[in-house]
Amino acid sequence: MDTPTQFFRSILLALAGNRAVEALALKYGLKLGASQFVAGESLEEALEQVRLLNAKGILTTLDHLGEGIRQLSEAAVYKDEYIKLLHHIRATGAYANVSLKPTQLGLALDPEAAYTHIREIVTHAKSFGNFVRMDMENSPYTDATIQIMKRLHTEGLSNVGTVIQAYLYRSEEDIHLLTEEGFNLRLVKGAYKEAKSIAYPKLSEVDENFKRIIAHRLRSTIYTGVATHDEKIIEWVKSFVKQERISRSTYEFQMLYGIRMPLQERLAREGYTVRCYVPYGRMWYPYFVRRLAERPANMWFLVKNMIKR
């Protein structure tokens, strides 16, 4: 039986795909509190936040929000935006790489066209000495995303990695195979609604699997992003790397813009590499709903802003 928190999360994630709710949210959401988690609608606004974060010793990854496009022509627009973003990162000297979602580049509509778009972005990034992270979306796209990464590497584009989600049963095996091949990975708990047949239903089980895959990656010394706001997991990582004598140069902590910012700053002051995921753009609604679903406290933050107004 679902707990109240799990039920609340399921309701919110169901709303993530509701077009009518999305239209209403896009009209008022940033004014009511979504700006807590989204750096702005424009690239210029996002780069200003990157500048402020960099000044505190925090690295960033920029994500131009958008997913689940309906027409392939939209993918070409997003591709151009990412190339523009890479040019601006280079021009401003920002300490930033980029993150993108494969469905944003057309994966659900035309996988080969999506690959061509992603390849062009990764090629530009390589010419600038930059890195591209392909975000992992819900389970129908897990295999395809991993295969895109592998294919790009075979073409000499090794400046690209992806994400593994600890709540999927398959992830421990994926970690072993992808680590053997030397891929740069970000590890997360997972933020999509998945069936119990393919994903751990209990948060305690997700946490244990998260620790298992983190331990395997850190022992491998292949560069890894440990993406979590869970301070218990962070303290466990700090203890684990000390015990195993693992260099801080082989991993980084990653967190989201607007969440646990004092913790991000403290870790950076302690000498850990910290990277903040900075999302921006007009199509922020699905991303925002997942942030609300992750922690009920995020929803109460939004409600309080609505009451104030």
From TrEMBL:
Domain of life: Bacteria
Cofactor descriptive note: Binds 1 FAD per subunit.
Pfam families noted in UniProt: Pro_dh
Species of provenance: Paenibacillus baekrokdamisoli
Residues reported in the UniProt entry to bind FAD: M136, Q165, K189, G190, A191, T228, H229
Recorded name of the encoding gene: putA
GO biological process, one term: L-proline catabolic process to L-glutamate
Binding site for substrate: K101, R290, R291
Top-level enzyme category: oxidoreductase
GO molecular function: nucleotide binding; proline dehydrogenase activity
Known pathway: Amino-acid degradation; L-proline degradation into L-glutamate; L-glutamate from L-proline: step 1/2
Gene3D superfamilies for the chain: 3.20.20.220
Record key words, sorted: FAD, Flavoprotein, Nucleotide-binding, Oxidoreductase, Proline metabolism
Protein's name in the database: proline dehydrogenase
EC number(s) on file: 1.5.5.2
